[in-house]
Structure formats: C-alpha cells, structure tokens
Amino acid sequence: LIQEPHVTQYKVRGLSLKNYDLIYTFTEGITPRTCVLVHRKWGATPTTWNNNKDITSVMVSTKRRDGSMQRTVFTSVYCAGDRITPVPYALEELTAWCQTNQHEIVIGADTNAHSTTWGERYTDGPENVISWVQ
Question: pTM to 2 decimals?
C-alpha cells in the first residue's frame, strides 16, 4: 500500500517487479498519489468503482479454515493536507460497502497529520481520522 509514489508523465514509475501487479488509476493530466503493489499469486482484483488519484483498492479472496471464502479489501489512501475533511468520501463509501458485504478492510494511509508527538508546533487532524476509523 503506497502513498506518493514516484510519478513521471502521470504514470507511477520505479515499482516494476517480476510477478507483481502495480495497480493505480491512470488519468491523463492527473498525478496519482496512491497505488498498490501486489504479488500475482494473490489474484487481487481492483475495486475500480471507487479508485481515483487519492485512493487505490484491491480485493483478495482467501479460503478460511472452515472452507468458506473471506474477502479482504486492501486500500492505499492519500489524505490531502489542504482538504476540509480529513477522510476522502471514497474511503467512507468503501468502508460502508465492506461492512455491508462483510468484507475485511486493511487501510494504509498518509494522513498528513501534524502532531507535537513527532516535533510539530501544533496538532491537527489525527483525532478526526482516528475517531472516524473507530
């Protein structure tokens, strides 16, 4: 789950690995800020209905011990520091969809949070993100 990958001419570069798929939304003129690099053995499927420059998600299906299938969504999210709301609406939609469909979700995010904990002069945002995740 990668945020702010190296991008040239609106394409993610430098993450080409044998047997891995690099998944992100390519739109001419828009720089992607998220991507997912996943091994092909997992058979990851992009959740294209909500992917955009700031959110990239894939679904992986695995078999539980009891033989039933478990679907897990892996999501890379970039929360722009200049946004009024800390959490992109597409992520709210995705988590609601996962809850409705009983899918697990794993979120990797760059929240652009400032905190005195790591030396910033002030704290902003993280309490909003944390309360949303709970």
Answer: 0.82
Q: Which residue range(s) make up the domain with 100?
A: 2-133
Confidence at residue 124, expressed as pLDDT on a 0 to 100 scale: 63
In the structure encoding, which two tokens stand for residue 113, read together?
């949070």
Cβ contact 57:94 at 8 Å:
yes
DSSP string, 77-124: EE--TT-SSSS-HHHHHHHHHHHHTT-EEEEEEE---B-GGGT-SS-B
Domain tally, the chain: 1
Residue-wise pLDDT for 79-128, tens only, equals: 877 666 667 788 889 999 999 999 999 999 887 766 666 566 766 654 55
- Average pLDDT on 8-13 reads 94
Residue 14 pLDDT level (bands cut at 50, 70, 90)? very high
Cα–chain center distance at 21 = 15
Q: What DSSP string describes 10-65?
A: TEE-S---TTEEEE---BTTB---EEEEEEGGG--EE-TTT-BTTEEEEEEEEE-T
Question: What CATH number does residue 88 fall under?
Answer: 3.60.10.10
